[in-house]
Prior knowledge:
single chain; mainly alpha; 9 helices; 79% helix; globular
Amino acid sequence: xxxxxILALFFIASVMLVLSPGPDLLLxxxxxxxxxxxxxxxxxxxxxxxxxxxxxxxAFGLGKLMQQRPPxxxxxxxxxxxxxxxxxxxxxxxxxxxxxxxxxxxxVSELKPMQLMSKGLLNNLLNPKALLFFSLFLPQFTTDNxxxxxxxxxxxxxxxxxxxxxxxxxxxxxSKIGAYLGNKLRLGKHIDGLLGVIxxxxxxxxxxxx
Length: 210
């Protein structure tokens, strides 16, 4: 169904887009550097699942609907920003509780694999710009020779797998950097507060971007 002559260009464009800084890369770098490769890898799986969901939504029309009906895109944006704000506030509260309870050892809160996967999925899925990106990017590599829906499904899957491979490499690299710097800078006891500020920043970024 896919024109093989455009696959090389699609791969290069996809890799360049994945390498550009954004909320997903920020989330993976923060968790991988502070909690290790496994945490970043589970986030990457969640982001992969979000990509598959967005591919399905674009293939079956929601991406186009969001472009035609701005209130729908705004509603998703508000929900995403509120979710990120809730995460940020809870993390900052947890960090503050640790700082004001010296009798208890300071530990970085651990999330279960499924919680990390859900966090990665929701961080990406509740960002309306990601869905709009899918709806604008994928059709550029389609042709009139076969089903548009089928082509978008295949291209979206490829894009999600490319992003997953890059995010896995990011997780490994940042986990090694974190293991080296963490022992020297002793950032572990402040990671919840750092993550909270990052999530609040992501929420503000989501609401202020047009």
